[in-house]
Amino acid sequence: MGFIMLFLVIIANLLIRSRLKPKKGASVLPDFTIFSDLTFSLTTAGTFFTEFGLFIPLTYISSYALAHGLPMAFSYQLVAILNVGSFFGRWLPGYVADRLGRFNTMIFTVALCLITTLGLWLPAGNSVPMIVVYAVIFGFGSGSNISLTPVCVGQLCDTNEYGRYYATCYTIVSFSTLTGVPIAGEIVEAQKGSYQGLILFTGMCYVGALASFLAARVLKAGWRPTAIY
After folding, report:
1. Average pLDDT, stretch 189-193?
2. How far from each other are the two terminal CA atoms of the chain, in whole angstroms?
3. Is 37 exposed, middle or buried (0-12, 13-18, 19+ CB in 10 A)?
């Protein structure tokens, strides 16, 4: 799988072309002075916490099901079930975001992941219906998180500055993407195979993400719930 991804990324990089002419003196390298913009800093923090928790259910939902005595075939099918929700989450919220606001939609989908993680996955145990419902809804919400992050960052800058902003954001976010899953695995090991701590850790990641995106939205659009931002 890794070599397939490497091959496809190489082809993509060879074929990609810039829509705009490069700006003289511009750079796509990270520029940490952008963090003087508090809204950008909060958006980066929200993305950091989102990706800290996002990949944990994708990685561990199958082993969670196996640990609770569910059939092996069903346990491994949960990833596919989660991806069904993710398929719709990758594109449907984009239409909503254009009408209700990118940050508003991001906040809703982050809250959806938080509520389902603590409200469905945490108490699920060996309940097949709860695990399936969680997989579908979390898949939808997490797919939306991934697809909405670039447009939230893009809303904070001009088009010709987007590469610099996105590179700076993900220079920080990459650390959470890299460490979230191993940390979750250590939590399971420390709890001698219990997944409760892992699920609570995932939930707390989404608490941090929700607080950060809410703060960024309030900073730009105020407290009015009807404000489109």
Report:
1. 95
2. 38
3. middle
